[in-house]
């Protein structure tokens, strides 16, 4: 429809506070959360991918700990949502926006978000469709999932200029 307006939301650091994610990794790797997050901040400030933090910390084999991470972290919890996440979604819906959540996340996150009360017209994670931000294919696919609205009628809300905001524009 010509009058459709969409807001497409990212997940990490937009709806979900990732403090528990990074704290879990720090504990598994035997370093302090402060050290881990300082290194992560430095990586992101340079425009790097969050996974580059493991190289900075001298732990390029971090993937061998992934099963332990998944077991310790578990799933998204209600307390992981930013306090205004659900009310913001409701306010956007009340203002007449269609809502989508399309993010770089494992496929399981779709069900986890729904389980903690997050409901939108469209919800899909990059692992479900094989493209990741900042690839333009990611954003093109997001538009397809939304029913191919005019890109000018969609606002993508994310936490990083380099990975979400600029490529979406």
Main β-sheet: number of strands, strand sense, barrel status?
4 strands, parallel
Helix content percent band: 40-55%
SSE arrangement, N to C = EHHHHHEHEHHEH
Output the CATH topology of the largest domain.
Rossmann fold
The portion of residues forming beta strands comes to: 5-15%
> What would CATH call the class of the largest domain?
Alpha Beta
Question: In one word, what is the shape?
Answer: globular
Overview of this protein structure:
- The chain is α/β, with parallel strands linked by helices.
- It folds into two domains: 6-16 and 80-168, HAD superfamily/HAD-like (Rossmann fold, 3-Layer(aba) Sandwich); 19-73.
- The protein contains nine helices and four strands; from the N terminus they run E-H-H-H-H-H-E-H-E-H-H-E-H.
- Strand 2, helix 6 (109-115) and strand 3 form a beta-alpha-beta unit.
- Helix 1 (19-29) packs across helix 2 (33-45) and helix 1 crosses helix 4 (66-73).
- The protein is globular, with a radius of gyration of 17 Å.
- It starts with 5 loop residues before the first strand and ends with a helix.
- The mean pLDDT is 94.
List keywords for this structure.
about 170 residues; alpha/beta; Rossmann fold; 2 domains; 4 strands
């Amino acid at each position: 429809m010509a009058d459709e307006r969409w807001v497409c939301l990212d997940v990490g650091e937009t709806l979900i506070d990732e403090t528990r994610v990074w704290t879990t990794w720090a504990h598994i790797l035997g370093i302090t959360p402060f050290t881990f997050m300082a290194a992560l901040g430095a990586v992101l400030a340079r425009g790097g991918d969050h996974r580059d933090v493991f190289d900075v910390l001298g732990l390029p084999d971090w993937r061998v700990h992934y099963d332990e991470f998944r077991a310790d972290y578990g799933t998204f919890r209600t307390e992981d949502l930013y306090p205004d996440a659900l009310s913001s979604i409701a306010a956007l819906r009340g203002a007449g926006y269609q809502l989508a959540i399309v993010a770089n996340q494992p496929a399981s996150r779709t069900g986890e978000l729904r389980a903690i009360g997050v409901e939108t017209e469209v919800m899909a994670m990059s692992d479900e469709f094989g493209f990741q931000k900042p690839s333009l294919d990611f954003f093109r696919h997001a538009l397809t999932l939304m029913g191919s609205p005019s890109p000018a009628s969609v606002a993508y809300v994310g936490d990083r200029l380099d990975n979400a905001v600029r490529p979406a524009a």
